[in-house]
Amino acid sequence: MFKVFKTPEFKKAISFFIEGIKENKKSFFISNASALLWCFLVILQPYLIKRIIDDGIVANNERSVIVFISFMVLAGYTRAMSIGIRRYFSMDVSYNVEAGIRNRIFTHMQKLAFNYHDQVPTGDLMARASSDASQVRLAFAIAPLASANIFLLLILSGTLLSLSLPLGSIVLLSIPMVLWLASNFSSKAMGVSLKVKEAEAKMTTEVEEQLGGIRVVKAFGNEEHASNKVENAVQNIYDSSLDYLKLRTRFVPLFELIPMVITLAVLLLGGYLTINEYLSLGEFIAFTQYVFLLIWPLRITAWFLSEIPSSVAAGNRILELLNEIPTITDDETPNELPVDGNGSLKFSDVSFKYGNEKIFDNLNLEIKGKKTVAIVGSTGSGKSTLAYLLPRLYEIESGSIEIDGVNITNLRLSDLRSNVSLAFEESFLFSNTARENISLGLEDASQEEVEDAALIARAHEFISQLPESYETKVGERGYGLSGGQRQRVALARAILRKPRVLILDDALSAVDASTEEEIRNELNQVMSNMTTLIITNRVPTIELCDEVVFLENGKVKAQGKHHDLMESVDTYKSLFLENQTSEI
Amino acid sequence: MRDNTFARSFKLVPEVYRPFFFASLIALLGTGIRMIGPQLISRGIDNGVMKFDYQYLLQQCLIYFFTLVALYFVTSKALLSIGLVGESYVKRIREKLFRHMSSLDINYFEKNKTGVLVARMTSDMQSLNEFAREGASSILTSLLTIFGATIAVFLVDVQLSLLSFLILPLLGIATRIFRNHADKTYWSVREWIGQVLSSLQEGISGVRIIQAYSDETKQLKRFKEVNNEHLKANMQSAKNIAIYFPFLEITRVTSIAVVIWFGAARIKSGSLTVGELVALLFYLNYFFDPLIQLSFNYDILRSAGSSMKKVFSILDEEPMLSKTGDLSPEIDSGRVIEFKNVDFSYGRETVLHDVSFSINRGEKIAIVGETGAGKSTIAKLILRFYLPTKGDVQFYEESSKDISQKWARKNIAYVPQESFLFRGSIRENLVYSNPDKINLQSELENIGLIDWFERYENGLDQDVGERGANVSAGERQFIALLRAVLAKRQIIVFDEATANLDIESESSILDATDTLLAYQTSIVIAHRLETILNAEKILVMSEGKLVGFDNHKNLLSNNKIYQQLFSAWNLVN
Lengths: 584, 573
Hints:
The structure holds 2 protein chains of 2 kinds. By secondary structure, chain A is an alpha/beta fold. Chain A is built from 20 helices and 10 strands. In chain A, the strands form 2 sheets. Chain A has a 6-stranded mixed β-sheet, with helices on both faces. Chain B has 20 helices and 10 strands. The chains are: A alpha/beta, B alpha/beta. At the A-B interface, α2, α3, α4, α5 and α6 of A face α2, α3, α5, α6 and α8 of B.
């Protein structure tokens, strides 16, 4: 019975829940106190009815009737108030806990490194912050109500026993019965409802994918295929939901049935006792009322118990995320970059893997400060990976990377990342103003600086033509920008920070040729002040660089001038073979 | 849901009419049985307990017992059948909705963000599901119980019933006020949860850029603001309930007090029995308890209603392209594509002006021009994602207005600039166009690309991950391109993603196409010089106009705009 209470998951969830209570002590106390008050007032009601019947109606005493009815009304109104107060404050606790969980998840997610995010799908994290957090909230919302009801059950039991021992014992029998049923139900329901949740998650993934790729779906005329896939997922939800439904409909009416059977037993035995004058009529009727009172506490207790497993599961899923230890963190005694450094880079014996796929194997590379270097290599040779390693977005397996002679693992992450600026090929814009998007990560960038960066990235012109210029919202929920425009915003973002090391990872791939040319000219001036790595296979861009680093098989195959490499390295040359044979 | 959303939602899935009708009947039967209980208790008290007739009491109890057993089976059946109706309803809506979505024109997906559409299929369906699972049966049985209790109360004693219901108008007014407030806060809660979720979504999908730019603090601040607004809205709704709920209780207490007060006097005068008074108290509880239940369910009903409204807004969208045209032009060796004085606008601005050209079978065409010159629009018209605003686009001398969508999809392949891969293996992605027919192994051997996949641990069975995240951008593009080639369509439209793919990989595919699909007409929106030089003919676009259509050599010698473009590409040489 109640297996869930014995699992380690439950213990973990409890300590998690207690934290939530601690953060909202006052409201939690008020809601529980008013729940207790409610509980006493509820018990009072049948007693008052008993007095009305015995002392008033049967004894034919009009004054008693008036007195006790007034008491009943007064108690009833106070009880009503206590319900309102309890509800409000228990909601206060639960919504605060939910919001708190969301804040914590958001904060924690930002600390987890790329390798975590590579493995865990967005939908998964979203589910934890949305539906799992809501499920935990539910437990907090019901808790005061449930504890009051459990308390009510106890007091009711006492009252019933003191009223009449035999009747009381019969009624009390119902309590373990209902609780046994509830635990039985919840242990069965847990597995089934988990399946429903899984089926729903699968459908979400499926829909996200099919709609995300709708252009491909439609281009191949595969709408039917897509619909079928989604319908399969929908069918799965339906099937598992039916299992759940069947289980529910078998159990739920029992919760209503049992109290009624008890009422029946009370009627039968109580009637006998009353007929033989062991009980007064008032007591007998009060008894029936007490039994009636049992129905709700029993149901709510059962409901609470049935929600516990899912809340525990949800709490554990959230904990799993929050307990994930960030792999890339600040050094405890961080060093500073030398003030006069010029951004020289040194990779010594760097090895790196994605899962099992080896990318770099003892890679060695030295780049002098303020140089502009092209990183060239065939598809999948690890060019982008090299870019990610420098700002420590991934941790290397062995070896070391140094900027101006300082190992990057000894630098504060915020220091490192404000000095190494990376413009990605896929430019992500936030649903925020263009200005905010460019000044990402900087608190105090002036409008002038932002515009300067935008000018260099050739983004100023189109941004100033937007409806609200730099204050126009862009991104998913904002003004739609083209791929090339997005890249230019992302480039401005990278330049604005005036980093020591600027990395452009195919950052101009969607920009048309003539604009790219303009940007290249502008960049030339900027780049002379910093070390620039340009990841590209475009000859004109490569020729602009001071030197080329050619990656092959996880190592630096060659480093030098483009023209020299063209002559001396065959595999390098073959990268541009098509280019050479065409009639220029 | 006071408007016609309810009726319309119901009509949308006619399959549930009959089951719903029967479920209601069963629930009604259950209510009827439930109402017998207090009546039996009342008789047991009056004729058994009060008259010291244990035999009679026993008899009443036996009948009561049987009604309880019957009640269990009937309620169970009622819950099951209402639940079934709900589940099949949601299932059908989901299926209908997705089918409808996927049939809509590309145009629709360009106007509506994917995230919003996904929400229609997930979170909106979630609220519908919640209604179907808990709300529907609870609301139905609550209404029926109130209905049954009202009748029962009146059957016991008309005078006392009228007295006890005197307070109801007050409750009515309070309910109205509550509903108005609940509606308002309901909307703000929804609005803010939407913001919270999209802000979260952005925080997760943008996590790489946030980290790379150490923007964590600012992002967290933004998120906290939105999250806090949501909390405030929630607390507002908690306040509504916290005020309305006690009011319900007060009404209940008052009406019970009234019944006991007048009941006591009536018992004294002998016009009411104790049993009847007890029955009245039971029935009054049967009347008020469901009211509480209903106030619990109000938000569920409300959100189900608003979700349905959104569902309707999608179902009301009509796909235009798949409905117009049913012709399948004969594939011959003549003109594959012809633009005749084509104008096009997405809405206000005309983006193509009087464009005319024709492309013959097997030709390799590149489209060049600056950003905004109309390159993509031409591609979209060739894909029949749109129909021209003015003039005509023809395929094999049939107007695109007349040919069927299906024909277009089965004969024109498309490689979008952003390569999209589906979850699953590389193999599954490659055979996407026709999983049953393509013999991947032999096809790849034929075009000599089988070795390319040896770079992966599991070869062709390598898992590409969500949106192909497990392979590099260039590899994604390679797979996407190969997928289109393997579809073996008559026409291929390729929006080149410029710099991702190394030339070696790209040219190996293009070589493959040359040998495998010599008949194939290809149109490339070109960004790379190499691609342009490889094209047989080049369409030069400028500000929505066609300014040149010839081969590289001729264009270079006599087309000014092309010369400018070319010098930009080639400046360094």
